[in-house]
Amino acid sequence: MSDGTDEEVRFVDKRAAARAAEEAAEASADAAVAEPEAGELAAEREKAEAYYKNWQRAAADFANFKRRVEQERQETARLSNAALVINLLPVFDDMDRAVGSVDSTLAGLNWVQGIMAIHAKFGRLLEAMGVTEVKAEDGQFDPACHEAIGRQPGEDGKVLHVVQKGYELQGKVIRPAMVIVGSGE
Length: 185
Fold this sequence. Notes:
185 residues; Nucleotide Exchange Factor Grpe, Chain A, domain 2; 3-stranded antiparallel sheet; 61% helix; 16% strand; rod-shaped
């Protein structure tokens, strides 16, 4: 112990040295583990992105499915309404002819008034369902909404007489009007 400087160099705090050794070991272990974790992290990110894309596809497919089912439901309702109206139209035509042919001597009777009221109610019901009559009388022949069943002398292409009324349901022809068309003679 002649010189104090040599002893100071050799004198070491054992706890600090142990802590430094532990930190160095942890740092080397972290470095060894950090590389595999980065690879694993990238793989997990790729899996997460794949799951997210699959979820987005599934959500879009489900939204498309809901839209398609709603459209099919509306189409089914429209077609069932059209079928009902098509089956009711002959009855309405018969009532229309009956009301149109009532003799003036019978017009005041109660039962005739009742049939006329039923006819009017039936017409309002069809109107409420979106059924409208195809305009045909004195118009030009239109094959999209008229069916020519005969020709007579008259202005060419003009509807001369309506044999059976035609009807549209919400803008689509469900029964064309049967008409007699002028032949141009």
